[in-house]
Amino acid sequence: MFYENIILLINNTFVCASNSYAQSTVNGVVIDATGLPLPGVSVTVKGSATGTTTDLNGQFTLNASKSATLVLSYIGMITQEVKVNSRSMINVTLQEDINSLDEVVVVGYGTQKRSISQDQYLRYLLKNY
C-alpha cells in the first residue's frame, strides 16, 4: 500500500509537470497600425531559443507552452510581449516607435573606376609639374 501511494504520487507529479510544459502550436498574424501585414517580424518565446519570423503575409507558426509569453520585435516598431494564455491564434498590431527611427543608418559601399583620357592626363601633368 505504501509503495502504491508513492508510485501514484510520482505519477501525478509527472502528469502535472508535463501539462504545465506541454507544447502547443500557436498561429498568428502581425500587422501595423494601418492594417498592413508585417513580413520579417521576429517572434520568440520569452526565455527560450524558440522563435520564428513572419512570412510575406505577416503570418507565423511556432510551438510554445500554454503559459508562455511571445516577444515580437521589428525595426522601427515598439517591441511587444503577448501572453499565450492557452490560445492557439494570436493577432498582434505593432505600433511605430518614432524615437528609434533616427537610430537606423543606411550605409552603402561600392567601388567606381575613374577613367580619364590621355589628353586629360597630359594636361594634369603639365599643370602640376
Structure, briefly:
The protein is α+β, with helices and mostly antiparallel strands. The protein is built from two helices and seven strands; from the N terminus they run H-E-E-E-E-E-E-E-H. The strands form two sheets. It has a four-stranded antiparallel sheet with strand order 3-2-5-6, with no helix packed on it. Strands 4-1-7 form a three-stranded mixed sheet, with no helix packed on it.
What does this molecule look like?
- 23% of the residues lie in helices and 29% in strands.
- Mean pLDDT is 80; it is low at 13-19.
- It has helices at residues 2-20, 118-128; strands spanning 23-31, 42-45, 51-53, 59-65, 69-73, 80-83, 89-93.
- The chain is built from two helices and seven strands.
- The longest helix is centred in the N-terminal third of the chain and has 19 residues, at 2-20.
- It is of the alpha+beta class and 129 residues long.
- A four-stranded antiparallel β-sheet has the order 3-2-5-6, with no helix packed on it. A three-stranded mixed β-sheet has the order 4-1-7, with no helix packed on it.
- It has a domain at 23-98: Sandwich (Immunoglobulin-like), CATH 2.60.40.1120.
